[in-house]
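Protein modeling request. Please complete all fields; requests missing the sequence field cannot be processed.
Requester role: graduate student
Desired output: 3D structure, token encoding
Chains: 1
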Amino acid sequence: MLHTPDLAPGELRAAQLTELGDARQALIRLGALLGEIGIALVGIASAADDEGVYWQCMEAIDAADECRDRVQEMLRKLAAREEELPEREAG
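Delivered output (91 residues):
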């Protein structure tokens, strides 16, 4: 059985992603959340008695992993852009 945490709506991890004041922090938090989702899905898949549920979890794990890869790529592009800005301003 899944444990549902007793949190107020503002305390939910996903709710913390609603404001994009700092894109880097939002992407870092999103990446962490996707990692936790993948881990939770592995637990569900491991406990699944139904083969259909197992394979749905496997597909969802793949999707979360692919999304996390995209977040990492966005972070790399953001870092590269930030490195270019001081060079442009100096030049």
